[in-house]
Design goal:
14% of the residues lie in helices and 41% in strands. The protein is mainly β.
Length: 291
């Protein structure tokens, strides 16, 4: 792969990451011949440094940006992936969270960034989902994009949901459950895994549907081709509101007769990998008895 000459540094402010550690990382990047772009909010660790430039929070990275380095947990990487969708900029995460399935580098492994600067890395392209809420009149009332999952649930009172799943215009089944998770392969190790869904290798081209606490024995996780257009329709929940949530962030309340349409996005998240054992090594480490 090509050597990295300019990166954008994205820091999760809620993690209270040691400013000296961030400063040391910036010094390492600059020493490796890489210029650094970051946001105005991060001036505290980069003031007066040659090779560091700043952009506003609402601005896109410069077009010659080669990669993004994200400091935080999986949520930080998901936010960065959505923020950079369409920019074709690969991401690498340095894990300051707890589990960190998406982060490639742990805090004690920061010297691995030298491999990235030298071009000694691979890129893993991960499917994203476009999610829309469509009214009975065909109007798009809500749209979002997600790297992990879209979740249909109700609230604030827990009630059973009745809904129908269709794929490519063909009705699959009618379900009775507390909700359903539509996950990408990347998202299979998140909420879907907690709900009993399978672990999928991130490079797969598929969509996983995992019911949440199904009330019938025949409602089980289903894996569909990534080119499938999936509809969640005929959604009924007596006496309570129904919501769709994407990547745990964007939330929208459905109206009567609304349906949810999910399809593969034209954008992919490109994750930088520098370790030889890849996803299987991450799986071994994160799902061990030590967690």
């Amino acid at each position: 792969m090509k050597a990295i000459k300019k990166i954008i540094l994205m820091v999760n402010p809620s993690k209270n990451i040691d400013k000296d550690l961030i400063g040391d990382l910036v010094t390492r990047l600059l020493s490796g011949g890489c210029s650094v772009v970051t946001y105005e909010s991060e001036r505290s660790f980069s003031t007066e440094r040659s090779g560091v430039s700043f952009i506003r929070e609402e601005d896109s990275p410069p077009p010659d940006t080669d990669a993004a380095v994200v400091l935080g947990g999986d949520g930080s990487i998901i936010d960065a992936a959505n923020r950079l969708a369409g920019c074709n900029i690969p991401l690498v995460g340095i894990n300051f969270g707890r589990v960190g399935f998406l982060a490639e580098i742990e805090i004690g492994e920061i010297p691995l960034v030298d491999k990235i600067l030298a071009g000694d890395y691979t890129i893993e392209a991960s499917l994203m989902l476009d999610v829309s809420v469509v009214s009975p009149r065909g109007e798009i009332r809500f749209s979002s994009r997600c790297l992990n999952d879209a979740v249909l649930t109700n609230g604030p009172v827990a009630r059973i949901l009745n809904y129908t799943i269709a794929a490519n215009g063909i009705k699959m089944q009618t379900c009775l459950a507390d909700g359903i998770i539509a996950s990408t392969p990347t998202g299979s190790t998140a909420y879907s895994l907690s709900a009993g869904g399978p672990v999928l290798e991130p490079i797969l081209d598929c969509i996983c549907l995992t019911p949440i606490c199904p009330h019938t024995l025949n409602n089980r996780p289903v894996i569909l081709n990534g080119d499938s257009v999936i509809e969640l329709c005929d959604i009924v929940s007596k006496g309570t509101s129904v919501y769709v949530t994407t990547d745990g962030k964007a939330v929208f309340e459905l109206g009567d007769g609304d349906k949810i349409v999910l399809r593969k996005s034209q954008y992919k998240t490109r994750l930088i990998r520098v370790k030889d054992d890849g996803f299987l090594g991450v799986l071994r480490g994160k799902l061990s008895d030590n967690i």
